[in-house]
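Title: Comparing notes on inverse folding

I've been comparing how different people in this forum approach sequence design from structure. To keep things fair, I'm posting one structure and asking everyone to reply with a full sequence. Here's the target:
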């Protein structure tokens, strides 16, 4: 399923982000950038040691990555050229600035991609796994942040949300259906 924002498209698919051939894939990392479980583990496993080597350089230079910020490294052995590492918020109660920090993670990842002149990138469902963000709330924030960014920046022509499990994929499908009605209904 897709949504068109000017000349840019938003796609959702169910699959494995390490297998995507977009210019960059986004990693739901932690501040240490030393890898972990979930999608972080999959990306480091599939991309190989060159990713961790670049992450170590970054941490040596600028320290741990604050929540909501994003940095870029090689994608190593994967089809995509780059990995954009971002740190989503750990969900507590929804009143500890989590919504803003999650939006920052999406927006800063898009900004890093645009600065690198990339045109296509894939996102996982940041913070909705180990970090416990309620899926439906996180999906709304993901779409709203990406749509607002694409309305202002024509550099990025494709954003692909790559959802791993059925529950998350159906949450994105429902949100996309609602948004299409809203956006196309307005036109
Ligand atoms: N491709 C796409 N999505 C994936 C993949 C994959 N290969 N593997 C897992 N996911 C999905 C999960 O199912 C979840 O929907 O990514 C989403 C985010 O889950 P996590 O990877 O747990 O990320 P997050 O909730 O942001 O927690 C980050 O987990 O792995 C550690 O080091 C990481 O400490 C950090 C924390």
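Reply #1:
Here's my take.
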């Amino acid at each position: 399923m897709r949504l068109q924002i000017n000349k840019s498209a938003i796609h959702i698919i169910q699959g494995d982000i390490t297998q995507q051939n977009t210019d960059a894939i986004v990693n739901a990392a932690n501040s240490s950038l030393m890898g972990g479980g979930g999608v972080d583990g999959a990306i480091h496993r599939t991309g190989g040691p060159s990713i961790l080597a670049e992450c170590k350089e970054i941490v040596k230079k600028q320290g741990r990555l604050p929540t909501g910020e994003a940095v870029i490294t090689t994608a190593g052995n994967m089809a995509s050229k780059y990995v954009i590492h971002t740190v989503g918020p750990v969900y507590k109660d929804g009143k500890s600035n989590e919504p803003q920090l999650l939006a920052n993670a999406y927006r800063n990842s898009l900004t890093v991609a645009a600065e690198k002149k990339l045109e296509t990138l894939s996102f996982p469902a940041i913070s909705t796994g180990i970090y416990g963000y309620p899926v439906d709330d996180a999906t709304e924030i993901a779409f709203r942040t990406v749509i607002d960014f694409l309305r202002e920046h024509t550099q990025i022509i494709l954003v692909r949300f790559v959802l791993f499990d059925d529950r998350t994929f159906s949450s994105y499908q429902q949100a996309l259906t609602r948004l299409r009605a809203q956006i196309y209904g307005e036109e």
